[in-house]
Each structure stands twice: as C-alpha cells, then as structure tokens.
Amino acid sequence: MPESKRIVVITGGSTGIGRAICLRFAREGAGIIFVHYDPDELKANETLELLDKMDVKARAKKLDVSSFGAVGEFFQEVLREFQRVDVLVNNAGIIRDAFLMRMSEDQWDQALLVNLKGVFNCTKAVIRSMIKERSGRIINISSVVGQIGNVGQYNYAASKAGIIGFTKSVARELATRGITVNAVAPGFINTEMTERLPDKVKETFLAQIPMGRIGEPDEVAETVYWLASASANYITGQVIHVNGGLYT
After folding, report:
1. What angle do CA 216, 198, 13 make, to 5 degrees?
2. 18, 46, 156, 185: which is deepest, by most CB within 10 A?
3. Sign of CA dihedral 36, 98, 182, 20
4. What is the percent of the chain where pLDDT is above 90?
C-alpha cells in the first residue's frame, strides 16, 4: 500500500506522543483515525485542527480502550468505512502512581486495564483484517520503566513490561502473514503526563540521562514512523529504545 494512502489508527492520539505520531503520519498524507478518553473534546479538537491544516482525512473518537466490546465495535466501524487498517499504534496509557503499601486494587487494575489490556483489545480487533490483506504494521508504545522499574510505578511498570512480552509473542504468530509487530520504549519525554511529575522526580530522571536532556514527542514519533515504513520490513518482535542513553 502506497504510504500516501494508508489508513492509520492511533490510540491516545489527542495529546503528547500520540499527537506527534498523528502529525508525523499526516505528513505522508495518510488517513488518520485517533481515539482518546479525555474528559472533554478540547485536546482532540486541537489535534483535528492541526491535521486539517495538513489537508488530510482525519477522524477522532472517544473510546475506552480497556472495553473489549467498545473496541470491537469501533474497529468494525473503521473497517466498514475504510475496508482496512494498515498501521495500528497502541499508544493509550495512564499512570496511577503510589507506593506499594498505599496502592489500591483499583489503581492497580486501572493501569493494567488501559495500558495492557487496551493493547490486547485493539490488536485482536485489527489482526483479522491485516491477515486478510497479508500486510500490516503494529507498533506498541512501552516505556523504559518496563525495563528498569521505578519506585511508585509498580502497576505502570508491570503493564509496560507486559506490552513487551505481548509484542514479541504476537510478532512470532504474525510474521508469516506479512505483519510486523514492534515496540517503542520511550524514556523521559516532554509531555503533559511528565509535566505533572514533582520537580524532584524530574531532576532525578534528568541526572540519569547521559544526553543531559529530556526527549521530545517528535523524536518518538519518528521512530514509530520508521517502524511502519518499508525501511523496517525485516524488523519484527523488537523493542526500540528512545531514551537518550538512560537505559542501554
């Protein structure tokens, strides 16, 4: 499929890394469908306005990726309208941080449901159509925390580590079907989520980054885009780290 005619679905696409990924694919002229779960439509509408200025077809939908039924219905709608999904980027994620002794069952469950089950739900909903086309790219957004852990982020780290195991397993299953499945593990990236972290936490992270700076969403988006391009045809089941040397 020519890149200018691809259909790309991005979860968590209204802000931060997700928005940057939307804009990167829009530069090739692809059709963009992104989902979000914001309390209002403000950020989603801002992203749609940016995409509209790039003269691409773009849609946005509020969707709870942790709901198996809602995700299935959403992809049925997409496939009825566009007949296929060429690229799926599983980016949606939340943080529910707490020290382990204070972490509630609900905090644990929320992070695992959105961050990990959401990847399962979306991937399962799209692979049948990709197998039919014998073509497809799935890129899952993990995190450096899934590799090195982090105090207070036990649920987040477990979910992001789970994404890596899921990615490698699905890559093996779909490799003969013309579908590649890879993960991108960002480090400390300049997003609204990281802006909310206490200054002391930010300083601790920054001190551990050999490059001496935090990353930008566009730098993650470029890696995602490359994995979805013909240049990465022979790459599957891999975790690409974008972290300035924080983890090697």
Report:
1. 40
2. 18
3. positive
4. 91
Q: Assign residue 156 a region (left: φ > 0; alpha: ψ between -120 and 50; beta: otherwise).
A: alpha
Tokens 């499945």 belong to residue? 181
DSSP 116: I
pLDDT the model gives residue 160 = 98
* Token duo for residue 210: 């050999």
Q: Give the count of beta carbons closer than 10 Å to the beta carbon of residue 143.
A: 28
User: What pLDDT, on a 0 to 100 scale, did the predictor assign at position 107?
Assistant: 98
User: What is the distance between the alpha carbons of residues 48 and 21, in angstroms, rounded to a whole number?
Assistant: 13
- Output b/e per residue, 110-121; b: 16+ Cβ within 10 A: bbbbbbbbbbbb
Place of tokens 């979000």: 36
d(CA 94, CA 15): 12
Between the two ends of the chain, the Cα-to-Cα distance in Å is 34
pLDDT tens, residue by residue, 156-187:
999 999 999 999 999 999 999 999 999 999 99
Which residue type occupies 199?
A: D
Cβ(15)–Cβ(42) under 8 Å?
no
The arithmetic mean of pLDDT across residues 73-91, rounded, is: 97
Regarding pTM above 0.70, the answer is yes
Residues 55-70 pLDDT 10s: 999 999 999 999 999 9
DSSP per-residue letters across 37-79: --SSSHHHHHHHHHHHHTT--EEEEE--TT-HHHHHHHHHHHH
